[in-house]
Design goal:
Layout (H helix, E strand, L loop, with lengths): L10 E5 L14 E4 L7 E3 L1 H4 L9 H6 L10 H15 L8 H10 L3 E5 L44 H11 L3 H8 L1
Parallel strand pairs: 1-4
Antiparallel strand pairs: 1-3, 2-4
Length: 181
C-alpha cells in the first residue's frame, strides 16, 4: 500500500490499526479516513515534512470556521476546537498525534485504514509517556488480512466510519456516559 500511494498526495499515511472494525461493511481490504490511524502507521518523508507541530494557522482557521466544513455535529466541532486551542496555547507540549491529525485534516489528506485490525498496541504501561493506564478500546486483537488485497474504486473518506471513530474515541466523558445510558 505504501508503494501504491507513494505519489498520491491525497494520502498522508497507511495505518495498521482499525478501531471501528465492528462497523465495517465493505468488500474492500481497506478504507480511507480523516480521523483514524494514529497507532501503528507509516508515512513518507514528503508528507511528514508538512507536520505542523505548533498549529501555526489555527487562529485563522478557527476564525474562518474551518472545522464546520469538516464536521457536521456541533459537539465534534467543539471538541476539536478545545483540543486545538489547548495545543496552540502550549497546553500539550509533548503531544504529536493531535498535531499530525491537524496537519492531515487541514492539508486535505486521508489515512488508509485496513478492514481488520493488523497491530497490537503495546504502548501502554508504567514506562509509557501518556498511556500508563491501558484503554481496552485502543487495544483490539490483531488479525490477518486476506490477500490479494481488494482496492476501493475511489479515494473518499468513509464519513460513516469516521463518525463511529469520533463517537467511540474522541468524545467528552459526558458524551460517552450519555451514549452508554
Amino acid at each position: 500500500i505504501l508503494e501504491r500511494y507513494r505519489d498520491d498526495f491525497r494520502i498522508a499515511a497507511i495505518s495498521g490499526v482499525n478501531l471501528v472494525e465492528e462497523f465495517m461493511n465493505t468488500p474492500y481490504s481497506y478504507y480511507f479516513s480523516q480521523l483514524g490511524g494514529n497507532c501503528g502507521w507509516a508515512t513518507w518523508r514528503t508528507r511528514w515534512r508538512d507536520f505542523d507541530e505548533h498549529l501555526k494557522n489555527w487562529p485563522a482557521l478557527r476564525a474562518a470556521g474551518a472545522l464546520s466544513k469538516v464536521f457536521d455535529r456541533p459537539r465534534d466541532i467543539a471538541y476539536w476546537t478545545r483540543r486545538f486551542d489547548t495545543i496552540y496555547e502550549g497546553g500539550e507540549q509533548s503531544a504529536w498525534d493531535y498535531q499530525w491529525f491537524y496537519t492531515r485534516l487541514f492539508g486535505g489528506r486521508l489515512v488508509v485504514i485496513p478492514s481488520v485490525n493488523l497491530i497490537e498496541n503495546i504502548g501502554y504501561g508504567p514506562g509509557a509517556t501518556h498511556t500508563s493506564i491501558p484503554d481496552l478500546r485502543l487495544m483490539p486483537s490483531a488479525k490477518t488480512i486476506e490477500f490479494p488485497l481488494k482496492h476501493p474504486n475511489d479515494i473518499v473518506a468513509s464519513h460513516s466510519l469516521d463518525l463511529h471513530h469520533q463517537d467511540l474515541y474522541y468524545q467528552t466523558l459526558f458524551h460517552r456516559i450519555v451514549r452508554v445510558i
